[in-house]
Amino acid sequence: MSLSTASATHTIREGAFGNGTHLSCRACGAKTELGPFYACMECFGPLEVGYEFPTITREQIEAGPKNIWRYQPLLPVPTDVASFPNTEPGYTRLIDAGNLARELGLRKLWVKDDSGNPTHSFKDRVVASALSATRELGMKVFACPSTGNLANAVAAAAARAGIRSVVFIPKDLERPKIITTAVYGGTLVAVDGNYDDVNKLASEIAGEEDGWAFVNVNVRPYYSEGSKTLAFEIAEQLGWRIPQQVVIPVASGSQLTKIDKGFTELGKLGLVDATDYKIYGAQATGCSPVAQAFRDGHDVVKPVKPDTIAKSLAIGNPADGPYVLDVARRTGGVIEDVSDEEVIEGIQLLARTEGIFTETAGGVTIATLKKLIATGQIDPDAETVIINSGDGLKTLDAVADRVGPKVTIPASYDAFVKAGLQ
Ligand SMILES: *Cc1c(COP(=O)(O)O)cnc(C)c1O
Ligand SMILES: [Zn+2]
To answer: Is 146 in the pocket of ligand 1 (CB under 6 A)?
Structure first.
């Protein structure tokens, strides 16, 4: 398999990656030029974007558009990125979750509600930065293996950008996620296998086909930088501060590691005081390889076969697993997991207390927060932020048989009184 998949003739324009200056290997530190590369030439480790930042001010950022492009100077995207058609994700609500905090016994809790993105999950952020890289690298097909939300985001962004999309999903995906992908009109391919099988197939195709940009495979270094915008927005919305504790759902682990990278960059740039923070990871017990490795004190993650209702987190062989362990241990956080029953209760708890209907991944995060408090692993007096990464309308089945009308009555006032509804 080749490590590069762009067309050989394309010239990368000046400033194509903003203040990004190179790619560096997260395993061995070897540096390479910016380009269509994703694995280290020395050790096959994953590559990430490195930068040389100029002075960046809060005022400069605050004057930017009300979407992730306000952080353009901190992303591997060109200064004119916002002028290309894209879904304009980001700038989602940071909700003061007082009711949920009281119920859980926390002093201060915020919910970063990323269900407010264009295709209702945090994936629109990473897809937007991957789309920019795909364009700048001259790649022609926008593709991904997906557990659902990424499929939505890739198909929508491709439709808007007017490029071809090919999305690969496990054939047993939730029906709403299939419909909400197919509606955008790209090519949707159901694969007879689980996500890890689909991911393997995508790597194979990426290695063989010129110009295919699998957002989370061969343009992953650019894709994952999009998650930093969650950290940037949280800090900006708190009045340019880093919260003390953050609880984040873990699938491949990209989001969690990049939220950490985002906070670190803000501190280094002097945009916030570089205060300490703890990063916590949330998994479903039916797919909890990272939580298991954390408990066992291992620094490698043993792959598992997923079996959970939290399908958007069901990655049995998470690419960023070891880096998630590293972030949690370095910051003093924990990776925990919760049962599917707890996930469902978590969904209902957030809905009942804050009026936010989250998907199963959000149920995992809420339930994990609850467990961390109950087991004394998180400080109830420290300011805490949790990520709601997706929308409950996409995973209705999780709660469908738990909720419904209290009673059915005839359309008469008498019946209303008789049913005791006054
Ligand atoms: C993809 C996804 C995540 C986590 O993704 P990572 O692969 O860990 O970056 C979390 N929540 C939802 C709803 C997702 O779709
Ligand atoms: Zn390396």
So the answer is: no
